[in-house]
UniProtKB/TrEMBL annotation:
<keyword id="KW-0051">Antiviral defense</keyword>
<dbReference type="InterPro" id="IPR005537">
    <property type="entry name" value="RAMP_III_fam"/>
</dbReference>
<dbReference type="InterPro" id="IPR010172">
    <property type="entry name" value="CRISPR-assoc_prot_TM1791"/>
</dbReference>
<feature type="domain" description="CRISPR type III-associated protein">
    <location>
        <begin position="123"/>
        <end position="305"/>
    </location>
</feature>
<feature type="region of interest" description="Disordered">
    <location>
        <begin position="1"/>
        <end position="34"/>
    </location>
</feature>
<feature type="region of interest" description="Disordered">
    <location>
        <begin position="310"/>
        <end position="353"/>
    </location>
</feature>
<dbReference type="Pfam" id="PF03787">
    <property type="entry name" value="RAMPs"/>
</dbReference>
<dbReference type="GO" id="GO:0051607">
    <property type="term" value="P:defense response to virus"/>
</dbReference>
<feature type="compositionally biased region" description="Basic and acidic residues">
    <location>
        <begin position="310"/>
        <end position="319"/>
    </location>
</feature>
<protein>
    <submittedName>
        <fullName>Type III-B CRISPR module RAMP protein Cmr6</fullName>
    </submittedName>
</protein>
<feature type="compositionally biased region" description="Pro residues">
    <location>
        <begin position="322"/>
        <end position="334"/>
    </location>
</feature>
Length: 401
């Protein structure tokens, strides 16, 4: 089944074709195509948003930002649910055959895969060939590996400035690795962690045992159109010094909405030793998705995932989950009104941690609820907190600067 096979007759929704090849203008986007090609397109409905995004972007010679928004409005519609269902069914069957551990996670907020891809719109997006957003297996593995590297660096008390050196050391061939790793004066726990790391992710001489799957959505949904608003474009372009007289330059882009479920899976390579480390690989992946995030703009709160269900393995993967009985209705909690990002330093008062901002405001921290190890006093951090309607707040994420 080719990506453009899913087409229906009729007019393109929100995507009217303009005239091509010098014909009279008509409302809607214009395409640099011969009249005959435009006529075919006008009578064909393309139901693959990824195909529209990559092949049917209109001309943008004038009013570029408005044209960009027109194009994104045509792309943000939900993909063909039957195509996604077929891919997801095949994905589940493969996970079952490989006896993979699977988990379903939902987006905490918006998620932007593939923003750096080169496209006619100058902003990219990670579309699967069948038109839905996805996270490639290589990216999924990278998130798990990065989290595992941070854990190992913490055990070795290695500063962030030396992470690159540790990364180069951990992937060396066995003989070189043993000699180089001892320079870190590792504890027994750190040695075990390094051994697990090399078995899971591999080295320069041997493939790792863990096999990571593409992460795909469990159901079809429309995308959001978001905006970034750089205020100092001439300064970033090296033309002028920064100043408040510059005009903002709005740039629209696509994003996966909040609370959308994605399926992740990790299997163990057939014949590879230490299959018991599959659980460890899944734990690293979950922690990385929760605390490091995926995709673009993670420093601004995008791309973080929260768990919605327990992992499943083997034959359970391809089966429908039974619907549990409805739980008692809990009291209505105040909904977060806004999410804020701020900076400050970690402080302790009677052994209770908090962040103090430059304007002397204090925000209490709960390391356990945040799922992270405590940070020493005076550590500079960037943090996010939810402000509730009743005036209370909750710190939901803390990262070292």
């Amino acid at each position: 089944m080719s990506p453009n096979a899913s087409q229906r007759h009729g007019s393109p929704p929100n995507h009217p074709a303009g005239q091509g090849g010098g014909g009279n203008s008509s409302p809607g986007p214009e395409y640099p195509l011969p009249k005959e090609t435009v006529a075919v397109f006008k009578n064909t409905r393309v139901s693959n948003p990824g195909l529209i995004f990559e092949r049917y972007i209109p001309c943008m010679t004038e009013d570029k930002e408005n044209r960009r928004r027109q194009a994104l409005n045509a792309v943000k519609t939900a993909p063909d649910s039957s195509a996604l269902h077929a891919v997801y069914t095949r994905w589940q069957a493969l996970a079952e055959a490989c006896k993979a551990k699977t988990l379903t996670l939902k987006t905490d907020w918006r998620f932007i895969p593939g923003l750096g891809r080169k496209t006619a719109l100058e902003i990219g997006f990670g579309f699967h060939r069948y038109g839905f957003p996805y996270l490639p297996a290589s990216s999924v593995k990278g998130i798990a590996r990065t989290w595992a590297l941070f854990e190992l660096a913490s055990l070795l008390e290695t500063g962030e400035g030396k992470l690159y050196d540790l990364d180069r050391t951990i992937e060396k061939e066995e003989g070189e690795f043993q000699k180089a790793f001892e320079a870190y004066k590792p504890s027994d726990e750190a040695r075990e962690q390094a051994k697990s790391f090399r078995l899971v992710f591999g080295t320069l001489e041997q493939a790792g045992g863990a096999v990571f799957f593409d992460a795909i959505p469990t159901s079809a949904f429309p995308l959001d159109i978001d905006i970034m608003n750089p205020h100092y474009a001439p300064y970033y372009q090296g033309k002028e010094p920064p100043g408040d007289w510059h005009n903002p330059t709005p740039i629209t882009f696509l994003a996966v909405p909040a609370n959308k479920e994605f399926a992740f899976a990790v299997a163990w390579r057939r014949g590879a030793p230490h299959a018991n480390l599959l659980e460890q690989a899944c734990a690293w992946l979950k922690n990385g998705l929760r605390d490091l995030g995926a995709g673009a703009k993670t420093s601004a709160g995008y791309g973080y995932f929260g768990e919605t269900s327990v992992e499943k393995s083997g034959k359970e993967t391809g089966q429908d989950r039974p619907v549990p009985p409805a739980p008692p209705v809990p009291p209505v909690a105040p909904r977060p009104s806004t999410r804020h990002t701020a900076t400050g330093t970690v402080r302790y008062e009677n052994k209770k941690p908090y962040v103090r901002t430059p304007d002397e405001k204090k925000y209490r921290l709960d390391w356990k609820a945040l799922g992270m190890q405590s940070l020493p006093a005076k550590t500079p951090v960037e943090f996010q907190f939810e402000e509730y309607e009743d005036g209370t707040y909750k710190v939901v994420r803390v990262t070292k600067k």
